[in-house]
Amino acid sequence: MQTRQVATVLVVGGAGLVSFAVVHFLIHEINTVPTAHIVTNLVVAGGAGVGLVYVGYWLSEQSFSPSRNRRILAWTALGAVSLLMVFVVAQPLVQDAVTFEEFLHIVQVSIGMGSLFGATIGAFEARALTRAEEATRAESRLASMEDERDRWNELTTVLRHYVNNSVTVINFALDELQRSVNEGAVRRDADGVRDDIDTIEDRVKTIETVAEHVDQLGPANGTAGISPVADLCAVIERASQTTALDVGVSVATFEEGPDVLAGDSIEKDVALLLEALASVTEGDGRIDCECERKNGHLVVRFTATPATLPPDVEAALFEPVTRHSGLKLYLAERSIDAYADLRLVSTDDRTVTFAVDFESVPE
C-alpha cells in the first residue's frame, strides 16, 4: 500500500465527517438543541474531520514503506474503536437514558476524534522511524567514508614503502653494474653480477605485484561488486589455470550449491592466494582445495604440502611488511575481506592451510 492511498482514505474519511456534521447540524438539531450545544457539536465533530483532511494532505507529500502505511491505518482504526468503546462504556454511568440523537452524536464525535488521534500518532511514528533510519544510514555512510580514508592511507603507505624501497635497491644494483663497466676491468666475479641482476629482477617483480593488484585496495564498491556464485569449485579451477604455478593444484569435487556471495575479483583473489602458497611450497609439493558446509557458510580450505610459512610472514600475517608470499597474502586478504573471511588454519607438520569462509546467499 502506497502512502498516497492512505492519504486518500484519510481525506475522504475527513470530508465525510465534516459533511455528516454539517448535515446533522442543519437537519436534526437546529430546532431541538440549545445553540451552544449545536455549535460545540459542529466544531468538535467537524473539526475532527478537518484534522483528518489535513493529516491526509500532509501524508500525500510523504513516502513511507508499505508496512508503515499499514501501521498508520491500524493506528487510525485503533483510535476510533478505542474512543468509541470508552464513550459507550462511560455514557451509561453519567446518564440513565440516551436518545438516538445523543447516541448518534457520541458515535460521530468518538469516531472522528479517535481517528484523528490515531492517524496523527501513526503519521508521527512513521516520520520518526523514517528519520531514524535516515540518521542511521548517514552514520553508516560516514563510517564507510572513514574506512575508505583508512584504506587509502594504507594504500599510500604500501605504495610508498615498496616502490621507494625497490627503486633504491634497483638504483644501487645498477650503480654497481655501471661502475664495473666504466672501470673497464672485471673487478667482480660472475656471481656478483648475477646477484645484482637477480636483485633488480626481484624488485621489479615486487613493483609489478603491487601495481597489478593495487586497484583492489582502493575504495570498496559496497554490495555493487558482490554477486551470487554457484559453482565455486569451477571458479577455483579457473584461477589455478590462469596463473603459472610451480606446484600442482587439485580441487575436490563438491555437490551443487549452496550459492555463495563473492566479489567480481574472486578469480584474481584466489589466484593471488595460490601464488602465495606456491611460493612457500617445495618444488615437488602440491596445493589441495576442499569445500565443506559449516554453520550456514561454505568453507574452502587451501592446504599446501610440503610447505613452510616463513617466521617473519607468520609473525606479521596479512601485514605489508614482507615481500613475496607476505605481500601477496596481504593483497589477497585485503581484497577478499570485502565479501569473505581469509584466515590461517595451521602451519604444522610441513603443512600450511588457509581457509576462506564464504557467506551463503540469503533465501
From TrEMBL:
Task: Tell me which UniProt keywords the record has, alphabetically.
Answer: Membrane, Transmembrane, Transmembrane helix
Ranges for the Archaeal histidine kinase 4TM domain? 11-133
User: Which parts pass through the membrane?
Assistant: 7-27, 39-60, 72-91, 103-124
Signal peptide as annotated in the record: none
Q: Which InterPro entries match?
A: HisKA_4TM
* Name the UniProt record assigns to this protein: Archaeal histidine kinase 4TM domain-containing protein
Q: Which organism is it from?
A: Halorhabdus utahensis (strain DSM 12940 / JCM 11049 / AX-2)
